[in-house]
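Input sequence (237 aa), recorded before submission:
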Amino acid sequence: MTTNNEYIIEILENAGLILQEQGVRVMSVADTEDGDVIDILVRDEGIHKMDILKALANQFGMETIDLSDVDISQDILQLVPGDVAIRYKIIPVSETDGLLTVALSDPLDVETLDSLRYILKRNVEGVVADSKKIDQALSHYYAGSTSSIMESVLEEITDAAGGLVTVDGVSLDSSEEVSESDTPIIKLASLIIFEAFRNRASDVHIEPLAKKLRVRYRIDGVLQEVDRALHDRGVAM
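Predicted structure, token format:
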């Protein structure tokens, strides 16, 4: 939310949650650290994060939710594919009369809701949750299916190319527009990053070999190869 820092401070001042001098002080720190004003308000000013989120959500007519208090059913989770939830950092929480409610951390992020409406082909509304709670929920609800998601993505890549795709076989030219055939590559990259986060890896090593792609994470200073559940597809994961 760093690009919206001034707007966030203005909303919080108008809501009476912080004083003008607090806003000035926090903006100064944010400029120095190139940081997020919400994190600075919590750290330096002792403002509760949920109070901040409630004030921001109220500005946009949205509700807030504590994901720790919610038990989400598999029927609801299946409405959003794992790769989509991970990529957009959202959690589906309920569905009523065709309207899907998802939790996201940034009430200013209208682009995510628009993208979800397009991808899921259904009406989507947002509620606001703590970003850490969303990360925990993603790990809890979707991490167990990460390998199967990776496998389905690799199937898409294989089917699209008519054979095993190596790094040399994939165009990474940033000047080209992303086409529909590129989507599986993007999904796989998102999943690799998510798994790195879930395992608290400090860095990721991707090594293209002759007939497979080896992915290793550095965890606690030691390089560890990802679970080889997809070994039968010629990819070391």
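Checked by second reader. The first helix runs from residue 5 to 14.
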